[in-house]
Amino acid sequence: MSEITKLLQAAGGGDREAADRAYALLYADLRRLAHSRLRREGAYTLLDTTALVHESYLRLHGAAEPGFAGRDQFLAYAARVMRSVVVDLVRARQAERRGGGADHVTLSTTLADSHSGHATGADEVLQVHEALEALQAQDARLASVVEMRYFGGLSEREIAQAMGVTERTVQRDWQKARLFLAMAIG
Predict the structure, then answer these.
(1) pLDDT tens-digit series, residues 163-176
(2) 165 in helix, strand or coil?
């Protein structure tokens, strides 16, 4: 059993010092996940890689930590948390952009029109999130494959190890999930 696995299991048992050491050892991997996430949707969050890692750390550290069987399982969970952080920030930004509860006033200016393309991308982030939630309700394993591969940047081999299935199963799940998401998003 690797040192990281031992630390993650101890962290699952409530050992905060073990959790801190595990995060320190996995920091480079967490930054890689965050960079992968922001490469796709970072323009809509105003976050940089370090900020996403730290925001995710706060959520991971603040919640009751489940026990993890190893590094890959932890990184899959971290990818899910990072997706949640990005979606929450996009929602907050859209609410703010739409007035955050203030009275609606229509503006017809060049500046307002120039932001329309930006909103489309943010809407797309939320649309993908909603489609992924629908996939989660229908088939949790397919949703996990998408989170780990697309959002987490894990390889098919790493996903297979984390999920305890074969690489071929991961490939089939990825194909099914892509088809489902393409139909859901339109």
Answers:
(1) 899 999 999 999 99
(2) coil
